[in-house]
Design goal:
Blueprint (H helix, E strand, L loop, with lengths): L2 H32 L4 E10 L2 E12 L5 E10 L3 E14 L4 E5 L7 E2 L2 E2 L8 E5 L4 E3 L1 E4 L15 E3 L2 E3 L3 E9 L2 E8 L4 E3 L14 H10 L2 H4 L2 E9 L2 E4 L3
């Protein structure tokens, strides 16, 4: 037997069992990933002006390497009362290792028999109906993490899809080459947004007279197929400017 044959034989005796062990471990691991279902659920609840507190959103996370079809989603309270939150036809599909956010519908009231029922939402268990089984999720209430802060209100005013603020004094809507454009005129006289014409400034602060004068002086009233000018009285409050 040559030296090379001795080395090969020795390597097979030492490393082959190790390689078989490693491959077996990986095979078991990947098989485990596909056996059964494991879904985590985080839910939020709250109420609105004319509806009672209810579960508003459920975020499902698939912990396995196979998809889960969702035909219905339920909340269980005290291990014996279940509430159907929503059902789906066709089913929602929760892809492997992905998350799915589902909004829940509000209701007017809940009853158990003839008695009004108010669930303990802090301790709900989320279940989902899949193809041939009901899956109990690893449920967790998701608290409002920013509840100790005062919420900043957002006021968003837009015209023709363009958001503007209180610095806009006038809005000029015009049709050029069969295309409708929306230009904003700043209080200082600057003209922007959908405005690629010249001039791009009134040369002075924006007033009814100055805006109308710019249109006539540059013969835009002849160039535009149609146009209308709005004075911004306040955010969301527009008044048409007459020539």
């Amino acid at each position: 037997m040559s030296c090379f044959d001795v080395i090969v034989t020795f390597s097979n005796e030492i490393f082959r069992p190790f390689l078989l062990l490693v491959s077996s471990v990986f095979a078991i691991y990947f098989a485990y990933k596909k056996i059964g279902n494991r879904v985590a659920a985080q839910y939020s609840f709250g109420g609105e002006s004319f509806t009672p507190s209810h579960i508003t959103e459920v975020v499902l996370s698939n912990k396995k390497d196979k998809p889960v079809n969702i035909y219905a989603i339920h909340a269980v309270f005290h291990n014996d009362l279940w509430l159907e939150l929503d059902k789906y036809s066709p089913p929602k599909v929760l892809k492997p290792y992905e998350s799915l956010s589902l909004s829940m519908n509000p209701y007017s009231s809940l009853n158990v028999g003839s008695d009004k029922y108010e669930p303990d939402f802090m301790n709900a268990e989320i279940y989902i109906e899949s193809d041939d089984k009901v899956i109990k999720c690893e449920s967790r209430y998701r608290p409002e993490l920013l509840e100790r802060y005062a919420k900043v209100a957002v006021n968003r005013c837009s015209y023709n899809g363009f958001v503007y603020d209180e610095t806009v004094a006038y809005i000029l809507v015009y049709i050029l080459d069969n295309s409708m454009k929306t230009a904003f005129i700043h209080k200082s006289g600057y003209i922007g947004n959908e405005w690629e014409l010249s001039p791009n400034h009134l040369g002075q602060n924006a007033t009814d007279q100055n805006v109308l004068g710019m249109i006539v002086a540059n013969k835009f009233d002849k160039v535009f197929s149609s146009h209308v000018i709005y004075r911004v009285q306040s955010l969301g409050n527009l008044v048409a400017v007459k020539a």
